[in-house]
């Protein structure tokens, strides 16, 4: 039997100390992997359903209004083929849609799954994303809603990160409204102009990015390719349900109690979310 290749390298003590609340570095062996070459990524982009491919100009502001995100006028194929000079940013989403990339995702997460389960049980919804960026491209200020390991494969980038509890960095309303369709980019308030940490990621390096921790990214002077492997946990699913309910309440002009303020209230909201989603499924039949 052929041994499964090991892709992630983590220090168990560092992982258990940091996951899921804090940023910490990991290593990986994905540099030069054939699935992550630009030619293979262009082929993947052609085969993915159109909603799973996003591309636009990369010369944007940290606080970019999504409605005014610039386009270059290039096609997807032109963008990828000329990514070194066209000033663009490409995101391939949910690439586990393709069996080969799904296997790569599972192989990567297998390296950390046992450690993750010591801190959060019920690992599920394994997903992966690939980011292809021109030199100097910026990813605006935002947060992720899953347990995320960002792995740098080609080029380098600098990540400006804030902790979840940094005053003013991200509000309860920011988080809640994101679960009800709000724009991905966050307002860059004066209180968050100085990041808590700055990480430079080179090929073979990665970073654990905790859930709901805001960050923005600037690519260095080379084309960047990053592979993001993500998953959710049972606790995160419960939290997300509470944020979803709160987001709906906020859109009605109410001021709900934020997640974590009351275990009893959170449980009632979680059950309400389950009932609402079950009813929505039944209405489809």
CATH architecture tag of the largest domain: Sandwich
Mean pLDDT reading: 93
How many domains make up the coordinates? 2
Number of helices: 7
Q: Whole-Å distance between the termini?
A: 46 Å
How would you characterize this protein structure?
- Helices cover 31% and strands 24% of the residues.
- The protein has 285 residues and is α+β, with helices and mostly antiparallel strands.
- The longest helix has 21 residues, at 263-283.
- The relative contact order is 0.17.
- The strands form two sheets. The protein has an eight-stranded antiparallel sheet. Strands 6-11-8-9 form a four-stranded antiparallel sheet, with no helix packed on it.
- It is globular.
- The protein has seven helices and twelve strands.
- The chain folds into two domains: 8-232, Cupin (Jelly Rolls); 237-283, no CATH class.
Produce the secondary structure layout.
Blueprint lengths: L7 E2 L2 H7 L5 E5 L9 H10 L5 E5 L18 H6 L6 E5 L6 H19 L6 E10 L4 E5 L4 E8 L2 E5 L10 H7 L18 E5 L3 E5 L5 E5 L4 E9 L1 H18 L11 H21 L2
Antiparallel strand pairs: 1-2, 2-10, 3-4, 4-5, 5-12, 6-11, 7-10, 7-12, 8-9, 8-11
